[in-house]
From TrEMBL:
The gene is alaS. GO terms for biological process: alanyl-tRNA aminoacylation. Zn(2+) binds at residues 555, 559, 660, 664. Belongs to the class-II aminoacyl-tRNA synthetase family. It catalyses: tRNA(Ala) + L-alanine + ATP = L-alanyl-tRNA(Ala) + AMP + diphosphate. This is Alanine--tRNA ligase. Keywords: Aminoacyl-tRNA synthetase, ATP-binding, Cytoplasm, Ligase, Metal-binding, Nucleotide-binding, Protein biosynthesis, RNA-binding, tRNA-binding, Zinc. Its main location: cytoplasm. HAMAP family: Ala_tRNA_synth_B (MF_00036_B). It is found in: Cytoplasm. GO terms for molecular function: alanine-tRNA ligase activity; ATP binding; tRNA binding; zinc ion binding. Residues 1-703 form the Alanyl-transfer RNA synthetases family profile domain. Its EC number is 6.1.1.7.
Amino acid sequence: MNSKLIREKWLKFFETKQHFIVPSKSLIPQNDPSLLWINSGVATLKDYFSGKKVPPARRLTNSQKVIRTNDIENVGVTARHHTFFEMLGNFSIGDYFKKEAIEFATEFLLDVLKLEKDKLYFTYYKEDLETKNYWIKHGFDESHMIPGDKYTNFWEVGSGPCGPNTEIFYDRGPKYDKRGIELLKNDIENDRYIEIWNIVFSTFNSDGEGNYTELKQKNIDTGAGFERIVSILQDAPTNFDTDLFLPIINQIEKYTKYRYQTENYFIKDKEQTQINTNFKIIADHMRTVVNAVADGARPSNVGRGYIIRRLIRRSLYVCMLLDIKEPILHKLVEIVKETLPYEYETDEIVNVIIDEEEAFSKTVENGRQLLNEHIKDGQEVFDGRLAFKLFETYGFPIELTAEILAQKNIKIDYQAYTEAKEKHAQASKGNKISGMDKVINSLAIIKQKVDQFVGYEYLTYRSKILYLLDTENEINSNKGISYLILDKTPFYATSGGQKHDRGYILQNDQKLIILDVFKDKFGNHIHKVEGIVIKDQEVECFVDPKIRLGLERNHSGTHLLFCALRKVLGNQIKQLGSDNNEERLTFDFPADSRPTDAQIKEIEQLVRKYITLDAYRHYLIMTTDEAKKMGAIMTLEEAEYMDPKAVRIVKFDDITSDLCGGTHLSHTAKLENFKITNVEKKAAGIFRIRAISSKELVDQYLDEEIDKLLIEVEKLILRNQKINPEYNFEYLLPEDKEMSIEILKSSLELIRKDFIKFTKEKESSFEFNYQNIEFLDIKDHKVYYKNDLPKENIKTIASTLREKYPNVIIILTSTNPNPMLVVASKNLNSNLIAQQIYHKFNGKGGGNAILSMGKIEQNNIFDFIINELKWEN
């Protein structure tokens, strides 16, 4: 099935479900300064969901072109990363909800695209059993349901509408990965189980502080990956091996001696893999450039223009790797247009690209000269910050810098390059000036650091207000929200992954509540407070000791966790980010795959060992070189503002030494306990550990886990007793809470196995005579109808009869109460027949053309079959 037909089928299908087709909008957002590009299918519909605009209908569908460039380094390397792609979507604005959304998805995938039911898998939010049950009611096996937690299956971005989601995956089989369902259950990056559709149920309103209220109007927001669906239906190993990309790749081949090889996905020849990657990069980037320029973007050094220029120049560099001697990007415009459904004039696009090709040729020559000026004799490492400056200021690709330096046996300091790149990204974020930015801007009169942090030694301190302002101006007094700088402060400002202190400031018996503490560019602490305040008066500062203790526990725990990670997983583990508040910590690190459960347990036990060793904390001040010699880990953001001649090292005896500016426990025993609560994939090759500390919080967490498991165990025991009334399962829980959790988890597995055993026994105890079957002749169709069959056997019987008698329509019902209906046929659409029966007998269910299953109110439907059922479909 070609890509054009697939796109048309999507839009036509939802149009038949009363959805209004919204044409794909421009990639450049209109009246939305928060976005650089349209980056999702729902982005152009936000005003409809917010109520700012009246939608053309409450049901909408689209195929929206989008741009995302946050993973540009993965383009061409993985099977599915793109900078430009199409997002298929169906949306409900206060109209239908879970039931219909799942029905539509089932019908489209099974009846329209003809995907095999047994190859579809689903994730769902573990507390959203309604969604799980809807999938099961449509005939999907429960073993294909994977529960997720709030971090994997709950859609929430700050405050506002949010809710659980369900994702649909397609199993492409063991030739893509011999490992099975554990890939999905453990969220392991793979090419076998492909996510093709995400359905978000907008159910609640979040205040951003963990409080949720149910929305009066519930909405549906979905996104299906067009390129992924195309690759599945065209049996292509990657998205690039489809009719969306191959015509572009074939055009590129005309200008090079190299050839693209689809079969190399399985052969994995290293040299050919790199050649394929080069073709993929050019094809992907040119799709983005052509469509962005068509929508009005132009290359420049800022904003979206910078993105376009970067993609063009990266493509030109890759052309060099393919030994393409002449500029060819402008020659790809027509073929890109032919692979997509959008209409635009190509002359202007061609001219824009030609101008960039000519400019890049000059850039390469200038860049080589600049690079040579900074290379010294005997140099072994090239400053990564300078490499980024060559890229950022002059557009000289980092890949080309690396290639030139490699010829001289010089390596790039990639850590410094990454830090410079990230610092630039942070500085460039957003176009709007926030209240905080205005405060910092209004403090421009301060040219140096004027305050002193005394929070390492003191939690209470007498200080003086040096500066007082609102969000616009410096003021002398205020009532409400104010910002102030003290001469000396015990309040730690958010930095280095540690959240700010809380507490209050006392002035003339008036309490100023601390709402936030952050730093200006000089490192001055800016306190956001609420209350009545007067400048140039002394105040008393009171840090909340309980919150500070929680912060110190989790920050200290982060250091111990980092050390344990390196011990268990290897010294190659780097800290990519951390976030510590008084209740929990997170730690991000790179890895090829998620650590095993055994490794996670070992890491956790190692941290607990460090706690029992009761190592004492030491603060050391030394030069950067001295810190490196002693093995201190230099990864945190404090390095940006610490004097390299006097960096601060936190050391817990002989366990760990790290550069850090945060606050920490005096000795590790005060951490009390440590528990890893989750390990999740944050992005490709990046994982996040979530953990808690302190005896109180760990005990509370374990108690909650035990309670949830106990409920599940008792529920499954009752389910087994419905099949076998004499069934009983006994278990004894020890005082050790973690051991109790392990026993309950093991018990759940045993009880589930008992259920499967009882079900099979009940099925095998019923014997169905597949011989001497009597058929009904109804309107030129042979029909077999039978009621009062056991529920456990009805699906098996229907499937067996369908295969044994392929020209017969099978209609079976089970025993009362709540009888099941199964329709199976190889000639007529089983689901369409079943839907008539559901409608007549107040039932519900679904399936595909060869088998549909659901529930109805009564099991004797003989008269309806004979007299009313419509057989032509």
